[in-house]
Structure formats: structure tokens, C-alpha cells
Amino acid sequence: MRGSGPADVFVDSNVLYSRTLLDWLGLLYVEPLVEPPFAVYWSDDVMVEVMHHLRKNNPTWPGGQIARFRERLESTFEVGRVRDYAIDGTYSGPDPDDAHVHAAATACRADYLLTCNVKHFDTKADDLVYEVIAPDQFFLLVDDVAPALVAAVVGRQIDYWMSRASEIDLGAQLERAGCPAFAQRIRAHLRRRAMAGA
Fold first, then answer.
1. CB neighbours of 28 closer than 8 A, spacing ≥ 6?
2. Could you identify which of 16, 43, 84, 176 might form a hypothetical disulfide with 104, taking C-beta atoms 3.0 to 4.6 angstroms apart as the criterion?
3. What distance lies between CA 39 and its chain's CA centroid?
């Protein structure tokens, strides 16, 4: 992360929609033992996109299940809601539907725009206030500056899956979510835990 203090990160809908990416982002953000080196920002437009895809891909879910998903997202990242921004023609990427993402990230003066669609944003534009970053690179940065935070979340992930009597390969899960380099870091954390007898 760059500069001093937590980095401001505006999160695109494709990150919030991915169960694996959302789990890691959320757990890193709310871990009580180690303060996260980032703050999360989102907009209503981003939330609408998440909810649209959630309903489209789960047409038989009851309304309460959809509502609880949104309420958990909003309560986890409560202070990061970006309400006021203008779609002003400064978005120069290939997908006009992403203009609202650029506008909101610019309005909150994000340090990073966290998205799975890096190619949808003009990363060479001189006037961008934010750096466009994919989840794999973002999670690597978090591990670089706060390895104790990542280690704590690895422990929470293990506890969660063990409580469900489920076997989970955290590395494989991350690889499927497009984070192969972070998957390797997690495997290293797991090896250190095993060696320490944790």
C-alpha cells in the first residue's frame, strides 16, 4: 500500500459478487486482532449490479435471503458508501457501463480501484486519482504490509471450514477466483502454521 495510513479502496461489483474474493476482503477488513491497511468504499450502483447478478443466478432464493446478503455487505462496509458522484464524461475505458465505477472511485479519491476487469479502465490516463488493481495483486500488497493480518484470517478461514466439518483447499479456492499468486502466499502461511503446530 502506498503512503501513510490506510489506503482507500473502491471495490467493483465483480469483486463483491465473488464469494471467495468477498470472503477474503471482508475478513481482512473486519479482523479484530490486526487493523487493516485499507478502507473499503462502494456505491449504490455497484450494489445494484451485485444484487442483479445474485438474483439472476439464484432465481429461486427467497427475498429474505437476498435481503440478508445485501444487509451483511452494507453493515460490513458501512462507512464506505459513496453517494454523490457525477458521470461527467471523463471515463475513457471501453465499457460505458463502467463509467459509474470510475466516477465513484474518483469522487471518494480512492487510492485503488479494485476490480477483476482491469482492462475496462484506462490505466495509462494521467488524470486518474486511483490505481487500477486486480484482486490477486491487491491481496499480495496486503500480505506485504500486514502479513500478521493475513495469517489471522487464514486461521479464521480454517476455523470456519472445520466448524462446518468441511475440507477446503484455500489455495485452490483462490486460484479458481483468479488469485494464483495470493494462493501461493496462503499455502506458505499454512505451512508456517503447520510447522508451528497451530
1. 36, 38, 139, 142, 149, 150, 153
2. 43
3. 11
CB atoms within 10 A of CB 66: 14
Helix ranges (DSSP H) in 38-179: 44-57, 63-76, 99-107, 135-145, 147-163, 170-176
Residue-range domain boundaries for the chain:
7-134, 141-196
Q: Distance between CA 165 and CA 174 in Å, rounded?
A: 20
Q: CA dist 28 to 24, 81, 86, 144, 149, Å?
A: 6, 18, 30, 13, 7
pLDDT in tens, 159-187: 888 887 777 789 999 999 999 999 999 99
**Secondary structure of 15-54 as H, E, C letters:** HHHCHHHHHHHHHHHHCCCCCCCEEEEEEHHHHHHHHHHH
Q: Can you name the CATH fold of 7-134?
A: Rossmann fold (3.40.50)
Q: Whole-model pTM?
A: 0.92
Q: How far apart are the first and last CA of the chain?
A: 29
Count Cβ atoms below 10 Å from residue 183 Cβ, excluding itself.
21
